[in-house]
Write a structure and sequence with these properties.
Blueprint (H helix, E strand, L loop, with lengths): L1 H15 L6 E2 L6 E3 L1 E17 L2 E5 L4 E6 L6 E2 L4 E6 L1 H61 L5 H58 L2 E3 L4 E6 L6 E2 L4 E6 L4 E8 L11 E5 L4 E14 L2 E8 L12 E18 L9 E7 L5 E12 L3 E6 L6 E3 L11 E4 L1
Parallel strand pairs: 1-21
Antiparallel strand pairs: 2-20, 3-12, 3-16, 4-11, 5-7, 5-10, 6-9, 7-8, 9-11, 12-15, 13-14, 13-16, 14-15, 16-19, 17-18, 17-20, 18-19, 18-21
Helix pairs in contact: 2-3
Length: about 400
């Protein structure tokens, strides 16, 4: 009976004891010291280098891809031929336009000769009429002298004066007709010249389209992409290739949506190309969210390192602001800005840690502001301690 009472008493005592603190291997947790001072607020994201200047080469007219002259990666100039297209209908239309133009020029020359011949005929007629008029004047003058001596009657003198007046009238009319004829010739030739210009313009257009079947780059750069294959038919305006200037690159970063809200144009940034760090500034923020990220463009302000090329993977960090005097600590695994979580704070000898509630403020890539719950010099565990969530304290081994 005494033994039973003793066993019961011991059981009650053990039941009253609190569970022992779990032991955690010190080497398996991340311990950081709370600090006070300046803190940089930054966000980071993965991205790539992309050209600032990209030109899409399109088909000027419908055609079939006859030959690919270059492959992606080739250095090119504005007149470099990338590929050759064919279009038999365009070739025939160009030839027809050429003959229409030549026929119009021939018609112009024929019309010009005809009109000039008519003008010469009228000028000849006017010259004869002018001669008749001058002869009539001389005859009248001579008869006027004779009439003074009574050798020519007054009637004959009047008749000669009438002939002079008639010839003068006819000569005036013919001069006006010749002037009108010349104006008409100018107008007719101008109309024909306009037709020639129209046919020439049509031919030049067809010829230009025919020449553009040899697809040229149009800019200096590197051929990035060829979008078609030999034998493929393409419509006018279809994308055939893409050309980029490899000497003018920018960084295109993908920033998590929840970190992008404080990013502004003009903020400083640094781009890690794995071989060097390039400074830059934010130039564009995409207004849309894609797959939980926001695209941010960063203009590079220093020279590109050796080996930098389009589509090179990079890491980017954007400086949001400089906080001059704050209490901060390394960012815990589940630490979000403006949140409250429980952290294990180490005691003075570092062998035991007690859970404390910590209120966070603004955050950066790997640090976060402490608003309440910790002071400068405290040491806390920042690792994921969800396995010890039921304990208020732990021991470190």
């Amino acid at each position: 009976m005494i033994a039973l009472v003793a066993i019961g008493g011991i059981s009650w005592y053990v039941w009253q004891l609190e569970p022992a603190d779990p032991i955690v291997d010190r080497s398996e947790v991340w311990i950081d010291t709370v600090k006070r001072g300046p803190m940089l607020r930054e966000v980071s994201g993965l991205g790539k280098l992309v050209p600032e200047e990209i030109r899409c080469v399109t088909a000027a007219t419908e055609g079939r891809v006859e030959r690919l002259v270059l492959e992606p990666g080739a250095r090119i100039t504005p007149n470099t031929v990338i590929m050759e297209l064919t279009n038999s209908q365009l070739e025939q239309a160009t030839e027809n336009a050429k003959w229409d133009w030549k026929a119009a020029e021939t018609s112009y020359e024929d019309l010009k000769i005809t009109l000039e011949s008519q003008e010469l005929t009228r000028e000849s007629d006017n010259a004869r009429l002018e001669s008749d008029y001058q002869q009539a004047l001389l005859s009248y003058d001579a008869n006027s002298e004779l009439a003074k001596d009574g050798l020519v009657s007054g009637l004959d003198l009047k008749l000669k004066k009438a002939v002079i007046d008639q010839l003068a009238g006819r000569l005036e009319i013919e001069k006006k007709r010749l002037e009108i004829m010349r104006e008409s010739i100018t107008a007719q030739l101008a109309v024909q010249r306009t037709r020639i210009d129209q046919f020439r313009a049509a031919y030049d257009l067809k010829k230009s389209q025919l020449d553009q079947l040899k697809v040229r780059a149009g800019v200096d750069g590197v051929l990035q992409l060829v979008s078609v294959e030999v034998g493929q038919r393409v419509a006018a305006g279809a994308n055939l290739a893409r050309v980029a200037n490899p000497n003018k690159l920018k960084a295109e970063l993908k920033i998590p949506e929840n970190q992008a809200r404080d990013i502004q144009i003009g903020q400083e940034a640094s781009i890690d190309t794995r071989s060097s760090i390039i400074s830059g500034k934010v130039t564009r923020i995409d207004p849309a969210v894609t797959d939980g990220t926001v695209t941010v463009d960063v203009a590079l302000e220093t020279g590109l390192p050796r080996g930098a090329r389009p589509d090179l993977s990079v890491d980017g960090t954007i400086l949001l602001e400089r906080l001059e005097d704050v209490i901060y600590v390394g960012r815990p695994t589940f630490g979000q800005p403006d949140s409250r979580i429980g952290l294990f704070k180490l005691d003075s000898d570092g062998k035991r840690a007690v859970r404390v509630n910590v209120e966070f403020g603004r955050s950066s890539v790997d640090t976060i502001e402490v608003k309440k719950g910790l002071k400068s010099g405290d040491r806390v565990i920042l690792s994921d301690m969800s396995a010890q969530s039921e304990y208020d304290s732990i021991r470190l081994d």
